[in-house]
Design goal:
- Helix 3 crosses helix 6.
- Helix content is 28%, strand content 9%.
- It is extended, with a radius of gyration of 30 Å.
- It is of the alpha+beta class.
Length: 383
């Protein structure tokens, strides 16, 4: 929206599968909207009065020949702006779901490492690798060391910083909170409190985290508060607690804390000589190259259809196995059940999304026909 000379120009909006466009602005109360005699001019549809039941000055614009207004000018007075209302206790409770380092927000429940291992193998290993050791394109969850965090990528003979749960994360509450809100992939928020504790217990155990010097066997809301992560004191400034804001201010008040060394004068700057490589190494195998082409296809592997290539690129992460809840390619029984709906319904669901699968599996750059070809490939490969 653009405000010009106390008028609001509402730019054209494309709305799908709707017979009317309702603007519910905050210009006036519903009483003002009902009594207003202001008119709204439409470049496409003529003049319309605000409807009496419109909320906060909203106007319902009709359509003609399937088209909405190209623009509209709302001439209603902007006095009496309504900034909303205070949220109700229930609305606040719905948003107040964080899990804090002191244990605030932890659910009631318990889960063992053994139960977490079963869950991990079922829901997580396909992305994060066995035992959290890392997967294709997904973070490594285990291993690493605090000492590696100080390494620079240019240190000869040293690994780059390895940031995993055990080496990097300062609070275990972040882990269980993330598991609750975002995991497992494709079915977030589906874990019970017991499953949340079990998964957290397994990942902490795989990272060698202990409680009171003993290996973790089971987690609950009581012993969870005793967890001390190895890198708990590795972050600065300390933002936790009532002094967090002052700690941040004090940290940034000292330039040396963030690498500013010496005095910046910006005068009498000398011209530094350009550093050049004295003995450049060029005889390397394979030779240096900026070409970033894909590796050549194996001619002996047989022809690969375009549908199979698209499947490998956009769909295999979920359909390679059934770990994501999707029917695995090659599982005859699973696909036989899917095809009971008929190919038209399967294509429709694949294009428009169903359950935890987004439209086109998230590959929105694919055409409907390409999606149908991929579905055909998966079905034919599962007979």
């Amino acid at each position: 929206m653009i405000k010009l000379n106390s008028k609001l120009i509402i730019l054209g909006v494309s709305v799908v599968a709707s017979s009317a466009l309702l603007f519910t602005g905050c210009f006036a109360s519903s009483t003002t909207a009902g009594k207003s005699s202001a008119k709204v001019q439409s470049a496409a549809n003529g003049m319309y009065n605000p409807t009496k039941d419109a909320l906060d000055g909203g106007v319902t614009y009709k359509t003609e020949n399937g088209m909405y207004t190209a623009y509209a000018v709302n001439e209603q007075p902007t006095t009496g702006v309504n900034f909303g209302r205070a949220p109700t206790p229930n609305e606040l409770k719905a948003w107040d779901v964080d899990i804090m380092p002191d244990g605030t927000g932890l659910p009631e429940g318990s889960g063992s490492v053994d139960e977490g291992e079963v869950l991990y193998d079922r829901d997580c290993a396909v992305c994060h690798g066995d035992f959290g050791a890392g997967g294709k394109g997904y973070p490594t969850l285990t291993g690493g060391s605090i000492e590696s965090l100080a390494n620079q990528r240019t240190c000869p003979g040293k690994d780059a910083p390895n940031r995993t749960i055990g080496s990097y994360w300062p609070q275990a509450s972040t882990l269980i909170w993330y598991i609750r809100d975002a995991m497992p992939y494709a079915n977030p928020k589906s874990y019970t409190p017991d499953e949340m504790y079990a998964m957290t217990a397994y990942l902490l155990a795989e990272n060698g985290i202990q409680i009171d010097g003993e290996d973790i066997e089971e987690l609950n809301q009581d012993n969870f508060k005793k967890i001390v992560m190895p890198n708990r004191d590795g972050f600065y400034p300390d933002i936790d607690g009532p002094n967090g804001i002052e700690n941040v201010r004090a940290f940034f008040a000292e330039p040396k804390n963030f690498g500013a060394v010496g005095t910046r004068c910006m005068t009498n700057c000398g011209k530094e000589p350009v550093a050049r490589i004295a003995n450049e190494i060029t005889n390397v195998v394979p030779p240096y190259s900026t070409v970033r082409n894909l590796p050549p296809e194996d001619e002996n592997a047989g022809p690969v259809s375009e549908a199979e290539k698209l499947y490998e690129k956009s769909c295999a992460v979920c359909h390679k196995t059934d770990a994501m809840g999707a029917p695995a390619v090659g599982d005859k029984n699973a696909w036989a059940t899917v095809m009971e709906q008929g190919i038209d319904r399967v294509n429709h669901n694949s294009i428009n999304g169903i359950g935890g699968m987004p439209p086109k599996g998230g590959a929105m750059d694919l055409s409907d026909d390409q999606i149908k070809d991929i579905v055909k490939f998966m079905v034919e490969s599962s007979k």
